[in-house]
Design goal:
The chain is an all-alpha fold. It has one domain. Helix content is 68%, strand content 0%. It contains 16 helices and no strands. Helix 14 packs antiparallel against helix 15.
């Protein structure tokens, strides 16, 4: 039996409640912006207010007070069930973790907050209009990040520095991954049927993200960005076709090539690169991670414990005495949750991409199909960069998975009503 998709506003009362969104929806949008843009890292005075915790609590409280509840059949949604299974794997791994306290805190505090965001996304975002508002907020977060990062980079270059860290949260590789995941959504707004101001902001944000990715000198970020631009070249749907697509790709591709010099040297002499040739490089870490995985293939070493496990392994085996992260989200998941967690996460992401590809092919709902295309490219971009970075639990990933899940629900509602609805904001 086919798993039910979340139902979107299936009564007049619910439709009235959810279309406007209320204060809880506004707080959810603010939460999304804070999680993506992290303004507290650039304006330290905000840190005293604990903005992430504050907005999380307020969003959950007002969602409850406004009478919003889980979508009907919530527990039967494929993505929800897979995430619950993944969470149970994390819980089951705590007693066997290499550091039980770290695994406990990660599972019941850090990862729980990510699941709360995913759940509240499905509760508060139930219509095309609301989804587009949240996506626009994410693009605004990307605009904030790219502007501030380019400003910091300019200041760093004037001071004679090398690669510039984005903030206390994002290093150059991290922010490149954020740019690549958000880039397709910026292109969607820059070249879609939007208000002129939004098209301009989306276009400028896409350009800033390209330049920002290049100046990070992140090879994973550049590979991900090139992959996304390549898929944009071979994709056509809705407004993304014809002359508009050709002009957009000419501009985006041109900016990519003009700024490639920032990272060109990082791709030269790859056979002698430290990641391949030196102890402590990615290949060395991945080989050690494989040994650890084979010793803990069922439940892994515990959530958030991969760097600790590598440190303990090196202490026992000798060699480089340094604790390092896995430098790959795939390796990180395998190491921390074992083969079951890796399989569940693969099913979750592959299923989301397949759902977006199915929606993308819907000719009768061009607006929905176009949005699905760009959301899918966001997942492509994220994973192409995250393969080289330890961000398996990034909010960027769960944001994109939630977008896919909500799009499935909107598609189900539209199919039931025989109405494409309104994708304009």
């Amino acid at each position: 039996m086919k798993n039910p998709a979340p139902q979107i506003a299936n009564s007049k009362n619910l439709e009235s409640t959810y279309e406007g969104g209320g204060l809880s929806f506004f707080l959810f949008c603010l939460w999304t912006f804070v999680l993506i843009a992290r303004p507290q890292d650039y304006f330290p005075f905000l840190g005293a207010f604990r903005p992430v915790l504050l907005v999380t609590v307020l969003t959950a409280a007002f969602t409850f007070l406004e009478g919003k509840r889980f979508p009907p059949g919530f527990i039967q949604i494929r993505e929800v069930r897979l995430l619950l299974i993944f969470y149970l794997i994390l819980v089951a791994g705590i007693p066997f973790a290499v550091h039980r306290r770290v695994a406990f805190d990660f599972t019941f505090v850090t990862y729980m907050s990510t699941l709360a965001y995913f759940a509240l996304f499905l509760i508060n975002v139930r219509s095309p209009r609301q989804l587009k508002r949240v996506l626009w907020v994410s693009v605004m977060g990307g605009a904030f990040l790219s502007m501030l990062y380019l400003k910091e980079t300019l200041a760093g270059s004037m001071a004679g520095g090398g690669r510039v860290a984005a903030s206390g949260m994002y290093d150059p590789n991290d922010i490149a991954m954020m740019f690549v995941g958000l880039f397709p959504l910026a292109v969607y707004y820059g070249f879609g049927k939007e208000r002129p101001v939004r098209r301009l902001v989306g276009f400028l944000t896409a350009l800033m993200m390209i330049v920002g990715t290049m100046v990070t000198q992140s090879r994973g970020g550049v590979i991900g960005l090139a992959l996304v631009i390549g898929f944009l070249l071979i994709s056509s749907r809705g407004t993304w076709r014809g002359g508009k697509k050709a002009v957009a790709l000419a501009v985006l591709g041109g900016i990519f090539m003009l700024n490639f010099e920032f990272v060109q040297k990082r791709f030269e002499g790859m056979s002698e690169d430290y990641n391949i040739a030196e102890e402590g490089g990615r290949m060395h870490i991945w080989r050690q991670s494989l040994d650890i995985f084979l010793s803990n293939p069922i439940l892994g070493v515990g959530g958030g414990c991969s760097a600790i496990a590598i440190g303990f392994y090196r202490h026992e085996m000798g060699g480089l005495q340094a604790w390092q992260v896995t430098h790959s989200s795939v390796v990180q998941i395998a190491l921390e949750t074992g083969a079951p967690g890796l399989i569940v996460m693969a099913l979750l992401n592959i299923g989301a991409i397949q759902a977006l590809r199915r929606i993308q092919r819907r000719k009768e709902e061009e607006g929905l199909a176009t949005l699905a295309l760009f959301a899918k490219l966001g997942l492509y971009g994220f994973w192409s960069a995250a393969f080289f970075l330890s961000h398996a639990y990034s909010i960027m990933l769960y944001f994109l998975l939630a977008v896919a899940c909500v799009l499935k629900g909107i598609e189900a509602q539209m199919a039931g009503e025989g109405n494409a609805g309104n994708l304009q904001t």
